[in-house]
Amino acid sequence: MDPTRGWWSAYERLGGALRRALEPAALREARAAEARGELVAAGERYLGEGRGADAGRCLARAAEVERSPLARLALLVRARDATPEGERAPRARRVATLRAELAERGELDLTARELTELAGELEAAGELGPAARLYRRAGDSEGETRARIAAGDVDGLEAALAEVDARERQRRQAASTERSARDLFLLGRRRESLEACAAAELASASLKALASEIEARRPARGPLELVLAGAALRVALGDEVVVGRGDAEVLLTGPGVSRRHVALRRGAHGAAVFDLGSSNGTFLGGARIAAPVPVAGAMTLRLGDDATLRVEPWRQGVRIEAAGAVVHAPLGPLDLRRGAELDLDAGGWVCARVPPAAALRLGDLRVDGPIELLRGDRLLTEGNELVLELRR
């Protein structure tokens, strides 16, 4: 045995002990923490001493024994960032792989842009299968196709191309549905337009906005604010108009007024007032009415104790005054001009029935047939004369 070898080994041990003795206290604490298995604390101390490689090693070891996937990812990111640039690639690859696994399991919420960027990292690192799957989640069919071709994944490529074709067909169908819904809207066929919006498999933001606009502008139950033949009127459409304090088209409050107190509808001899079995009665000239009372002229009715209702003929219906408010009720279709009529349909839509001979426009488009009107709509003649406006 060479006697110098033993001497040299002892010299190296002595040199190592001297170096450790001369190390900063923080570095000695880092080594001691690592020896005790306190890897995160050791990594932080190494970082404080500028020992990136040692810090990265400790943090990476801590990540491998961490049970929580998200906490493990956080440790791996710290290990990657601490590692010197030239030694960082393997840890960067491990971070990207774990992020991909968590994203695929739904444990990490990434935007489409973040998914695409992560897929690009994996593709560059040769992780083509995970890259293709992430491109697919991001909706990047071009990236998915490229990754599957590079991986030689023929079956996956065929499935991806079939899905691209299906998405394109769906996109074209959605675009066609949107055009149809907008055309129907402009032509006054709002019910069909709303149905088209609801039936769309892929409802775009603009299609949802169209449906919301129709619902928002659709008149609610009760009198409409109209401009008719140049005059502003409040009009209650329908074959019957109920007056009462609750479930009624014309609201009237007062002692003894029932929720549905009286109705005005056409009887055998024209418009008439019908008591709806009110608790406190309807009175004309001091006498309680028990049968329909024709509206042959202006009349004042008392509902219950002292609520007053004034009614008089108007066109084919009646003019109603209750609590200082005036409402006109045609009690059937309201004549507009040249055979055009306004009424409520069975679904409660405000419907204009416009024969071709009426030659009316809704906005810039000539319309005919039954159309559903919304607040803000205007019916005009070809000469731009206002026939009807539903105020907003």
Helix and strand topology:
Elements: H1 3-22, H2 25-35, H3 39-48, H4 52-65, H5 69-82, H6 89-104, H7 112-124, H8 128-137, H9 141-151, H10 154-186, H11 190-199, H12 205-217, E1 224-228, E2 231-235, E3 240-244, E4 250-251, E5 262-267, E6 270-275, E7 282-284, E8 287-288, E9 293-294, E10 299-303, E11 307-314, E12 317-322, E13 325-329, E14 334-335, E15 341-344, E16 350-354, E17 360-362, E18 365-367, E19 369-372, E20 378-381, E21 386-390
Parallel strand pairs: 3-4
Antiparallel strand pairs: 1-2, 1-21, 3-5, 5-6, 6-9, 7-8, 7-10, 10-11, 11-12, 12-13, 14-15, 15-16, 16-19, 17-18, 17-20, 20-21
Helix pairs in contact: 2-3, 3-4, 4-5, 5-6, 6-7, 6-8, 7-8, 8-9, 9-10, 10-11, 11-12
Descriptive key words:
392 residues, alpha+beta, Tumour Suppressor Smad4, 4 domains, 6-stranded antiparallel β-sheet
Task: Give an account of the 3D structure.
The longest helix is centred in the middle third of the chain and has 33 residues. Strands 2-1-21-20-17-18 form a 6-stranded antiparallel β-sheet, with no helix packed on it. A 6-stranded antiparallel β-sheet has the order 8-7-10-11-12-13, with no helix packed on it. It has a 5-stranded mixed β-sheet with strand order 4-3-5-6-9, with no helix packed on it. It is 45% helix and 23% strand. The protein folds into 4 domains: 153 residues, no CATH class; 44 residues, no CATH class; 91 residues, Sandwich (Tumour Suppressor Smad4), CATH 2.60.200.20; 57 residues, no CATH class. Helix 5 runs antiparallel to helix 6 and helix 7 packs antiparallel against helix 8. The chain has 12 helices and 21 strands. The relative contact order is 0.06. With 392 residues, it is an alpha+beta fold.
